[in-house]
Amino acid sequence: NNDNEPLNDFLRPDGTITTDVGEFTAPYSLTGNPECKSPSEINRKQPMCNAHPDSHCDFWFNKDNFNSPFFRCFDKVDPEPFQQNCAEDTTCRENACDSAVAYAALCSAHNVAVDAPDQCLSLSCPA
After folding, report:
1. What is the mean pLDDT of residues 42-59?
2. CA atoms of 70 and 82, how far apart (whole Å)
3. Residues 6+ positions from 71 with CB-CB distance below 8 Å
4. Beta-carbon neighbour count of residue 100 at 10 Å?
């Protein structure tokens, strides 16, 4: 709901309220496309996180990297928490772009124009 009332933000079509993202999104899911993740897979960490963090995390959020797309913003927004979240995300969920897009948005809020990396701007689920 768009009424600034946090208590009903996860109001389902049947009138019940949930705090689980998967339960909330399930009634709105599109079926029939095997490349799309099911609602039960959204924002769920795998029980065993044993992959290595994506190398993009260090490249994008390293304060000493002058080639980072976010370099101009490092003095305004501390990249360290985003680097940590990125590493965790890619280890357990394989998506470095969540942190990159969030960082770009926060930079924009601080009046620093940076673009999210190109690979984060493409659709991962075909229409």
Report:
1. 63
2. 11
3. 65
4. 26
Dist. CA 1–CA 106, nearest whole Å: 24
**What pLDDT does residue 127 have?**
44
Note if the pTM is more than 0.85: no
**What's the pLDDT tens digit per position in 53-64?**
668 888 999 999
Lowest mean pLDDT among 80-84, 85-89, 118-122: 118-122
Task: List C-alpha distances in Å: 44 to 3, 38, 47, 82, 105.
Answer: 28, 11, 9, 19, 23
Q: How many residues does the chain have?
A: 127
Rounded Cα gap, residues 62 and 24, in angstroms: 36
